[in-house]
Design brief:
Mean pLDDT: 89
Number of helices: 5
Strand content: under 5%
Structural class: mainly alpha
Order of helices and strands: HHHHH
Radius of gyration: 14 Å
Length: 111
């Protein structure tokens, strides 16, 4: 059994390191959105068997891009990571929902 509560603290810290110079209104908005999404992330991570491996693979790609000094690739990987999590959560909550706006935003962010 994987422990979501033990996982979430270092995972949240990893993500906070992706925007170290962010402050003020933008930082408050990022934290607020993360807080709002936390219950959905818990459902995704605890109800989707492949979620742990998927999340770790995404985080590894982000870290590898940052290690190469490639901020553009890191940003694209972060967008893929957040979108994949959101799409998986949407599929869990409402399998008939068509997330075309999210897919369009992801395409725009990664191309």
């Amino acid at each position: 059994q994987r422990d979501y509560d033990r996982f979430t603290v270092p995972h949240d810290r990893f993500h906070s390191l992706l925007y170290p110079d962010t402050s003020g209104r933008l930082l408050r908005q990022i934290k607020q959105l993360s807080d709002h999404a936390s219950r959905y992330r818990r459902v995704y991570m605890t109800q989707t068997p492949s979620a742990w491996d998927v999340v770790m693979a995404h985080d590894t790609k982000i870290l590898q891009a940052l290690s190469r000094g490639d901020a553009t690739a890191a940003g694209a990987e972060l967008a893929r990571h957040l979108a994949a999590t959101a799409l998986s959560i949407m599929a869990l909550m409402d399998p008939l929902h068509d997330p075309r706006l999210l897919r369009a935003a992801l395409h725009q962010a990664c191309h």
